[in-house]
Amino acid sequence: MGVSFALGAVPVLVFLAMLRVMDGYRLVHLRRVLLVITGGGCAAALCLLVSRQLWLLTGFSPLSSHWLLPLIEELAKATVVLLLFRFHRIGFLVDAAILGFAAGAGFAIVENLYYATVLAPMPVGVWLVRGFGTAIMHGGVTAIFAVLAQLLTERNRRKGLHLSLPGLVVALCLHWLFNRFYLAPLVHTLLVVITLPALLTWIFLRSARAMHQWLQEDFDGDLELIHLIQSGEFGRSRRGKFLRDLRCRFDGPITADMLCYLRLYTELTMRAKGVLMMREYGFAVGAGDGLDGRLQELRYLERSIGRVGLLALRPLLGRDWRDRWQLQLVSNLD
């Protein structure tokens, strides 16, 4: 059983480790990867319970094994990824690919552990197919789902559950295609091992170029906003007019808190961009002094301003869908 489980689990973990090594910006902390693997494992345990009930109701019919079970499995893995989007843990294609693959890896590990425990001993070739084929397929299609959801988020510059549907359809179709075994199992496995690294390498290269461009453009915008707030001379720019309107519509103390919040929020997102710029050139960057105090001050100002004030600031705070992701990044610096 130990050899069978090793063949079913080690390849997908090695592949995941290679993805993290390729992440030159170190966007994803190891602790988060382990949590997502655990989430994928919990999704697998839930699917095993559901599949048992489904087999009791329908028997081992093609409808359940070929169509319904892949749908249930992809929905379970997609839920893990969607929770990451919901809590602003994904900001680029790179971390979407890594965390999506981690969710699928956790799913495959628990599934293979279950089969190694309850099934009769199977030939080594079967476990090679499960380890290099099925397990990496689970990680790969979930990574593709996460990447497509992130691509549509970038294109629309906003988040929404409907933006994840195309990725879910693609992942489900690939899962169905893999399960049909139109070719020999070893050929299927070879295709997975060849195509997934090439696809994910392309994703990483594209994301690196997009991140470099975003860092340059957005950093300049943040500097402009900080200058407007600190100088108090709002001028005739669109942002300046917006800040002037805020000062006219809210009481003095509330306006002061709103400007302090806007300045602090922008400074923290600039710190996150600075960290990424340093990492781009190979420098290890820590949190620095005073970060915890600034994050506490930000939360205090949120309570002081209230929901109405935050809604009024949204046109400035929400100018990029990655702002909240940047705060998550800077709050988790070591």
Radius of gyration: 23 Å
The residue-averaged pLDDT reads 82
Estimate the global geometry from the Cα principal axes: elongated
Share of β-strand residues:
under 5%
Helix proportion range: over 70%
- Which structural class matches the secondary elements? mainly alpha
Count of beta strands: 0
Protein described:
The chain folds into 2 domains: 2-209, no CATH class; 232-331. Helices cover 82% and strands 0% of the residues. It has helices at residues 2-22, 30-58, 62-86, 93-118, 124-156, 165-180, 185-231, 238-249, 252-280, 291-317, 323-331. The radius of gyration is 23 Å and the shape is elongated. The model has no long low-confidence stretch (mean pLDDT 82).
Give the topology, please.
Elements: H1 2-22, H2 30-58, H3 62-86, H4 93-118, H5 124-156, H6 165-180, H7 185-231, H8 238-249, H9 252-280, H10 291-317, H11 323-331
Essential attributes:
334 residues; mainly alpha; 11 helices; 0% strand; elongated
A few lines on this structure:
With 334 residues, the protein is an all-alpha fold. The chain has helices at residues 2-22, 30-58, 62-86, 93-118, 124-156, 165-180, 185-231, 238-249, 252-280, 291-317, 323-331.
